[in-house]
């Protein structure tokens, strides 16, 4: 009788089944698709806010309002070209205000919530998907802080336990 070299077919099948079971149970821990998708969505919102602010700054500069320090009615920017001031600006960028951010993002509140953060963040405004509620343990939002005389507006994505 010859000495056997290698694996039998049954041994090979058992090993493949065990590897398949391990892959199915371990994969979700390494591939968190929902969290990655939310983080990408937040990155998209940050980019949309930056883009809207760039356009607003351009219009404020054309109207000579890019150096105005406060968002009083005199510093509103006409964004539609109809002669009526539409958006409150601080140093040419949108004021960190729930209503003003909603205007520049053209948000009706059905997909995104714009809010004052309270204890969640030191930012002036946070923007988060409407289907979640941020908390101390679930921080999933875009932070926006007003421009100052020496700094541009600040945009940050916070995606902790998103």
TrEMBL record:
Pfam families: N_methyl. It comes from the Bacteria. Keywords: Membrane, Transmembrane, Transmembrane helix. InterPro entries: N_methyl_site (IPR012902), Pilin-like (IPR045584). The chain crosses the membrane at residues 12-31. This is Type II secretion system protein. It comes from Shewanella hanedai.
């Amino acid at each position: 009788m010859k000495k056997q070299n290698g694996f039998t077919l049954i041994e090979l099948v058992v090993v493949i089944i065990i590897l398949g079971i391990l892959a199915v149970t371990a994969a979700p821990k390494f591939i968190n698709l929902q969290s990655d998708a939310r983080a990408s969505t937040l990155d998209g919102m940050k980019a949309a806010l930056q883009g809207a602010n760039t356009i607003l700054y351009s219009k404020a500069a054309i109207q000579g309002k890019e150096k105005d320090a406060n968002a009083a009615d005199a510093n509103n920017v006409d964004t539609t070209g109809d002669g009526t001031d539409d958006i409150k600006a601080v140093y040419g960028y949108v004021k960190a205000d729930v209503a003003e951010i909603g205007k520049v993002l053209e948000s009706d509140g059905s997909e995104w919530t714009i809010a004052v953060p309270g204890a969640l963040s030191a930012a002036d405004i946070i923007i988060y998907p409407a289907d979640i509620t941020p908390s101390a343990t679930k921080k999933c939002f875009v932070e926006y802080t007003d421009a100052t005389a020496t700094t541009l507006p600040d945009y940050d994505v916070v995606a902790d336990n998103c």
